[in-house]
Amino acid sequence: MTTSGTTLSEVLTVLDGLYPPDTAQSWDQVGLVSGDPAQPVRRIHLAVDPTLAVIEEAREAGADLLVTHHPLLLRGVHSVATTSAKGASVTALVVADLALYVAHTNADVARPGVNDALAAAAGLTATEPLTVREGQSLGLVGDLSVPMTLQAFAAMLAAALPATPVGVRVSGDADAEVRRVAVLGGAGDDAFAEVRASGADVYVTADLRHHPALEAREEARGGPPYLVDAGHWATESLWLESASERIRHELGGAAASVEVYVSTLRTDPWDFLVATSSTTSPEQRSGGPR
């Protein structure tokens, strides 16, 4: 194939430089999923998830390359028939001549990366790695410029995040003072030990399951670290704007012929919230007498 202008191969060099595939966790699947390195790229579309709706949005926008945070083919797939959502996604990508590139845990550990964007939303200006796994930093921890109540912190964070129906869930005394904050975009209930070791007053992450979260609060004996579950999509979508700016910058002169856009779709799976009674006594919250 002969092309003029910027090729996918040239864009891949930029992406691999920003988010080196060898920095991804061993279980992850990152890099080019579909596409011909020789094909021209005139428009790049960025999104958190490669859902059918996102693929259609990118196709309608005339994109040649879709860059997503989450992998499409993380686990073994034995069929790409359109009878399954993954099969339909692969078919849609191929039929539309739309390349797909994934930057997942390699974007998490990049500096700046997913967690830098979340740390900025949490009001942190100076951070250090929360922990190290497989030789790469996992999460960040830092201090707020001034202490504030857990309630005020959660409200500030919620205002900085994209809106979702479920919002931000908080576990802890609303009036407790917090200053040191640990952040880990996406699912993070396997890092409670590291959070405690960091001395964080509050931990911002997502996908907190009942038992790990309950055990973490039991270990804290009602004190810090308090928990803020800000939603998987919300905590990771902040990275997209930063990524788009870095891609434009690294493309240099080629950026004049390549448009870079961020998806407008919310791929959070929840659509609405039905609130239950908000009147709960301290005894009920602590599991005491009712």
TrEMBL record:
UniProt keyword Signal present: no
List of residues binding a divalent metal cation: H69, H70, D108, H232, E236
One cellular component term from this protein's GO annotations in UniProt: cytoplasm
Pfam families noted in UniProt: DUF34_NIF3
InterPro entries: DUF34/NIF3, DUF34/NIF3_sf
A single MF term (Gene Ontology): metal ion binding
Record-stated family: Belongs to the GTP cyclohydrolase I type 2/NIF3 family.
Subunit structure: Homohexamer.
Protein name as annotated: GTP cyclohydrolase 1 type 2 homolog
Species: Luteipulveratus mongoliensis
